[in-house]
TrEMBL record:
Any Pfam family: 4HBT
Single Gene Ontology MF annotation: acyl-CoA hydrolase activity
Record domain Thioesterase: where: 59-125
Keyword Hydrolase: yes
InterPro entries, A to Z: HotDog_dom_sf (IPR029069), PAAI_dom (IPR003736), Thioestr_dom (IPR006683)
Entry keyword Hydrolase: yes
UniProt-recorded name of the protein: Uncharacterized domain 1-containing protein
Gene3D superfamilies in the cross-refs: Hotdog Thioesterase
Keyword annotations: Hydrolase
Length: 145
C-alpha cells in the first residue's frame, strides 16, 4: 500500500485501471499519492468529435477518475470509493495529442471526500486549461474479515 519512489500508489492505480471504463478509454497514471493524482489520456479517434479534438465525455470521465483516485489514496487499505456527484465546466476546446488531469483532495472525510481537478489539453508540449471539475466521492470502509 505504500507509495513507491516514483510517487505512484500502485495498489490504487492497478484497481482503477482494472475497471472496464478506465481500461477502454486508456487512462494512465503519472502521479498518485498523498491526496493527489495526475492522469493522462492520449488522443484517439474514438475520443473525438472532430480530428484532434476531444469530445466532452472522455474529458469528464478523466476528471472523475482522477478526482476519485486522489481521494482513495487517503483511505485505509481495502477501502473503496465511488462517485457520488461531479460537476465539470468546459472552458475551451480540448485540442491536442493528449489530456492531462491534475487532481487534489480539497476536503477528506470519513463518509464523503471532495476533490478538485483541472484538465489540460496538451499540444506541442504546451498545456491549455480546457476543463475544471469538483468530484464528490462516497467512501466505503474495508469489510471486516
Amino acid at each position: 500500500m505504500t507509495t513507491t519512489e516514483d510517487g505512484l500508489r500502485r495498489d490504487v492505480a492497478e484497481a482503477v485501471l482494472r475497471l472496464p471504463a478506465a481500461a477502454a478509454l486508456g487512462f494512465a497514471f503519472e502521479e498518485l499519492a498523498d491526496g493527489r493524482a495526475v492522469t493522462r489520456l492520449g488522443w484517439r479517434p474514438e475520443h473525438s468529435h472532430a480530428p484532434g479534438a476531444f469530445q466532452a465525455n472522455p474529458i469528464a470521465a478523466l476528471a472523475d477518475f482522477t478526482g476519485v483516485s486522489a481521494g482513495v489514496t487517503l483511505l485505509p487499505a481495502g477501502a473503496t470509493a465511488a462517485t457520488a456527484d461531479y460537476t465539470v465546466k468546459f472552458l475551451s476546446e480540448a485540442r491536442g495529442e493528449a489530456l492531462v488531469a491534475r487532481g487534489r483532495v480539497v476536503r477528506p472525510g470519513t463518509t464523503l471526500t471532495v476533490a478538485a481537478v483541472d484538465v489540460f489539453a496538451v499540444s506541442g508540449g504546451r498545456e491549455e486549461l480546457c476543463a475544471t471539475a469538483l468530484v464528490t466521492m462516497r467512501n466505503t470502509r474495508p469489510r471486516a474479515a
